[in-house]
Amino acid sequence: MERYDLIIVGTGPAGISAAITAKIRKKSFLLIGSARLSEKVQKAHTVSNYPGLGPVGGEQMQKAFLDHLAQMEIEITEDKITLIYPMGEYFSLQGMNGMYESRSIILAAGMAPSRMLPGEEPMVGRGVSYCATCDAPLYKGKTAAVVAYSAEDEHEADFMAEYASKVFYFPQYKEEVHVKDGIEVIREAPKEIKGGFKADTLVTSGSEYKVDGIFILRESVMPSQLVPGLEMEEGHVAVKRDMSTNIPGFFACGDITGKPYQYIKAAGEGNVAALSAVGYLDKLGKA
Ligand SMILES: Cc1cc2nc3c(=O)[nH]c(=O)nc-3n(C[C@H](O)[C@H](O)[C@H](O)COP(=O)(O)OP(=O)(O)OC[C@H]3O[C@@H](n4cnc5c(N)ncnc54)[C@H](O)[C@@H]3O)c2cc1C
Questions:
Q1: pLDDT-derived band of residue 39, with 50, 70 and 90 as boundaries?
Q2: What's the 199 CA to ligand 1 centre distance in angstroms?
Q3: Quick check: 8 and 262 in contact, CB under 8 A?
Q4: Residue-range domains of the chain with CATH
Q5: pTM confidence score
Q6: Handedness of CA 6, 105, 42, 82 (dihedral sign)
C-alpha cells in the first residue's frame, strides 16, 4: 500500500486550502472527501466576505474552488473516512472504499450536523456503527436500522440489505428515497438508542424498533469517534496556533477547530495546517 506524506480529510474550504499548499510544497498527498466539495459551500445563498470572489452564490463559489483544484491538478479521492489509527510513525485510515496510509494527517471534516443520540456513545462498536460497508457482514440474517442524513448514503442501505434479513431505513433528508425493494423506509426522527451490553432498540419520534444493529450515517463522523485519543475542547478539536493537536503529525483546521464558522477562517487555517504538516514531515525526514 502506498504511504503518502499527507492525507487531508475533508473537501470544504479548509481541506482545499490545505491541499493547494501541500501541492505547492510538493508533498505526496491525498485529498479525501466529496467531488461536490462541501454542502456548506454549495448551499450558501450569497457569500460576501471571501476576498477576491465578490458577492457570489454557493454554487459559483463551489465552481471557483473546483476550477482552482483542476488548474493545480489536484484530484479528489471520493471516500468517507470512518477511523484513523495513529500507528507511531504513520497513520492508518479506514474508509468506506478502502484503507490508506500516511505519515501525517490534516482533519478538515467540518462540524457534525447533529449531536450524538442519547445512548449512542456507549454502544459504539456494540451494535452501533458508522459504516455499513465495513460492518454489514456482521449482520447476516439479522435486523438492522440505517439512519441516513444524505441521499448519498442510500447505497449503504442497499448493501446492508444484501446481508441483513430486515432493514429499516430512516432518511433524515427531504429528497425522495430510492432504495432496494424490501427495505422499509420510515420517515421518523431517531431519538434514543437503548440496550443492555449491546444496542437492541432504536427509539424514534413515532415508535420503538427492535434491531440487532444501528447504522448512523452522518455527513461528518464525530472527531472523537474518528480518532482514538484525540483531545477535544468544548466540542471541537483542541489545536495550537499551528493547528497541531495532541497527536504528533495530526493537524486539524476549519469549523472542526471552533468558531467563528467562516470560509476565510477555514481556508486560512487550512494553509497553516499544511505548512505545519510540511514542517513536521521535514523533521521526520531528518530524524
Ligand atoms: C447555509 C450556510 C451559509 C453560510 N454562509 C457563510 C458566509 O456567507 N460566509 C462565511 O464565511 N461562512 C458561511 N458559512 C459557514 C461556512 O460554510 C463554514 O464555515 C465552512 O464551510 C467551513 O469549512 P470547513 O472546510 O471547515 O468545513 P466544511 O465546509 O463543512 O467541509 C467539510 C468537508 O469534509 C467532508 N467530510 C466530513 N467528514 C468526512 C469524513 N469522515 N471523510 C471524508 N470527508 C469528510 C464533508 O463532506 C465536507 O466536504 C455558511 C454555512 C452555511 C451552512
A1: confident
A2: 31
A3: no
A4: 3-113+220-286 (3.50.50.60), 121-217 (3.50.50.60)
A5: 0.84
A6: positive
In the chain, which residue ranges form alpha helices assigned H by DSSP? 13-24, 39-42, 58-71, 132-135, 154-161, 223-226, 263-286
Nearest ligand 1 atom, CA 16 = 25
CB crowding 218-233: b at 16 or more within 10 Å, else e: bbbbbbbbbbeebeee
Return the residue matching grid coordinates 505548512: 275
| 171, 148 Cβ separation under 8 angstroms | yes
Quickly tell me which residue has 513536521 as its cell: 280
pLDDT(113) > 70: no
Which of 61, 263, 264, 272 for mutating ligand 1's site (highest number of atoms within 8 Å of CB)? 263
Can you state the percent helix, strand and coil of the chain, rounding each to 5?
30, 30, 40
Cell of 238: 483542541
The string of DSSP letters for 69-85 reads HHHTTPPEEE--EEEEE
Residues within 6 Å of ligand 1 by CB: 9-15, 32-34, 37-38, 40-41, 43-44, 47, 49, 80-81, 108-110, 219-221, 254-255, 261-264, 266
Task: Evaluate if residue 104 carries a pLDDT over 90.
Answer: yes
CA distance 154 to 144: 14
Q: For ligand 1, atom 21, which residue shows the shortest CA distance?
A: 40
Question: Could you tell me if 104 and 18 are in contact, meaning their C-beta atoms sit under 8 angstroms apart?
Answer: no
Length of the chain: 287
Cis omega (within 30 of 0) on the bond before 260?
Answer: yes
